[in-house]
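Human:
Care to share another protein and its fold?

Assistant:
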Amino acid sequence: MIKFTKHAREKFKILELHRVYISRKQIINAVQKPELIDYSRSPLLIVQRKLDRNHVLRVVYKEEDGDKVVITFYPGRIKQYEKRSKAKN
């Protein structure tokens, strides 16, 4: 099961104020089928999936009692994370 912290739930509204629209479905998809997994902040995991030609979605979560708990998520420019992606693949 994938759960969202209060902060993660509020993040949808914060991003919408900036005209950035990310759906729960996109976040769940990133957690279930990541294109990249960053273990550098273990026990937190950061997963990444492409949003469009220029952007990726990054989701920070932790595993807790068999559930995946989304702490936060954010869009980023592919160029910012490109080097990390190549290093992890």
Notes: The helical segments are 6-17, 24-32, 78-88. The first helix runs from residue 6 to 17. The mean pLDDT is 92.
